[in-house]
Amino acid sequence: MRVMSALAILIGTTLPALAGDGFHIVIPGRAGVPIIINGVDASYAVIEGDRGLAKGLHVQPTVYGGRYIDPLPNVGHYYPSAGHQPGYGRLEIEPPKNRKLPKAAESFHEEWGAQSPPPALQNAVPFDPPAVIVAPPGARRY
Questions:
Q1: Which tens digit of pLDDT belongs to each residue from 7-17?
Q2: What global pTM score does this model have?
Q3: What is the rounded CA–CA span in Å between residue 61 and residue 64?
């Protein structure tokens, strides 16, 4: 009887432990922003073996149905010294030399500055004034 109850407890505890390592479907949180896992766009794909922050170990996930993303896209190169026009970009047209020029812009000048106050205002009150201030003679007293 003890063997049967021990076997039932063993089976009952191992099945929930194995249930955490199933597959997951990746759904992006924001439209147009891909979920990149090891250079593969895993948006709306199935991944297996991702443990994330659940445990101290990290299992490399397997992505089923993702698209490979080239880390350095092949955009081509343009060297002006070769004398060829680029395959894309704006088409620059040189205007003729005898064209009518636009009216010249009016002159504009703006100036900013800062300065100290005049010296007379700086020394209006001495740093060490006398203890008694004598009023001038003939001043009215109220």
A1: 788 777 765 55
A2: 0.38
A3: 10
